[in-house]
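User: Let's play a game. I give you a shape written as tokens, and you guess the letters that built it. Ready? Here's round one.
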């Protein structure tokens, strides 16, 4: 029986390279499962998982729900908008009440950075961080790296540029940790107002010019502008942002080599990426979505192995 080095998945920085290798190896097996006629295995038949989403989500929530169903787990789905949180109940009280119903594992998205870590210090069941504020989104980083590996082979030595709102993106931070751990070179690109001042301390370069960054990279990960997390204007307008940092077919075709294009979603078509790029053969956006189910199946399965029944 294989398990991860930690009973929780709170962030990529809490993992070891061996953990990522094990997750990828397990995901390879589950990807074969979800592409066969009967897409279900009884691996978590006696496990109950609660999906606690205190923040809106479509892809991540559905991906986790589908991963749980593919593993035959019992699931509870919680939405903060229709819960007692609106009546003033604390996060810990909410979770403890859910755990009293004999829940074995928690998947949680929360608008506050560190919420999953706080919870892990107070409860005994495994927690999967499905995104906490602008902090980390570990399963997104894992599925992104897995998708690059699937497309290009080994990540060691590959050049990846992350373009867009780095300052407010949990995807960017988790991707940086994951890609660096797997031996990739990473740069970020975007308006200087959206680049954290500490970025170079993570071993990451900053390239302000989009075309220079695209010529350098093997993979471009185009991020959405996180308008909902911005309390002030960081650039004049979306139109100007798109002119400076949006990826269109003309820019893609003008490069001296073919690059792979990624996007974690949701896409603002015409802002960070145009439809003809998003739907092109160089884009692996839908592969990322498919791989997300396999990666989340792998994470849930490996964490469930640590549960003592």
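Assistant: Ready! My guess for every position:
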């Amino acid at each position: 029986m294989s398990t991860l080095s930690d009973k929780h998945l709170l962030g990529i920085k809490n993992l070891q390279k061996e953990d990522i290798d094990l997750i990828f190896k397990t995901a390879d097996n589950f990807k074969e499962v979800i592409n066969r006629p009967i897409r279900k295995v009884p691996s978590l038949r006696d496990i109950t998982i609660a999906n606690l989403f205190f923040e809106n989500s479509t892809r991540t929530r559905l991906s986790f729900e589908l991963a749980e169903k593919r593993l035959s787990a019992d699931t509870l789905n919680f939405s903060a908008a229709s819960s007692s949180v609106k009546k003033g109940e604390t996060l810990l009280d909410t979770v403890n009440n859910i755990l009293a119903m004999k829940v074995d594992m928690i998947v949680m998205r929360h608008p506050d950075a560190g919420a999953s870590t706080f919870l892990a210090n107070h409860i005994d069941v495994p927690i999967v961080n499905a995104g906490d504020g602008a902090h980390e989104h570990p399963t997104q980083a894992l599925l992104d790296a897995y998708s690059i590996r699937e497309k290009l082979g080994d990540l060691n030595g590959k050049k990846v540029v992350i373009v867009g709102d780095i300052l407010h993106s949990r995807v960017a931070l988790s991707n940086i940790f994951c890609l660096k751990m797997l031996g990739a070179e990473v740069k970020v690109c975007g308006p200087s107002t959206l680049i954290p001042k500490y970025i170079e301390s993570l071993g990451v370069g900053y390239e302000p010019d989009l075309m220079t960054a695209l010529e350098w990279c093997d993979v471009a990960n185009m991020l959405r502008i996180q308008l909902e997390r911005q309390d002030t204007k960081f650039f004049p307008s979306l139109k100007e942002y798109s002119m400076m940092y949006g990826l269109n077919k003309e820019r893609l075709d003008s490069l001296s080599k073919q690059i792979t294009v990624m996007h974690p979603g949701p896409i603002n078509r015409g802002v960070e990426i145009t439809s003809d790029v998003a739907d092109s053969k160089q884009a692996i956006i839908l592969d990322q979505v498919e791989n997300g189910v396999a990666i989340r199946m792998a994470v849930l399965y490996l964490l469930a192995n640590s549960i003592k029944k």
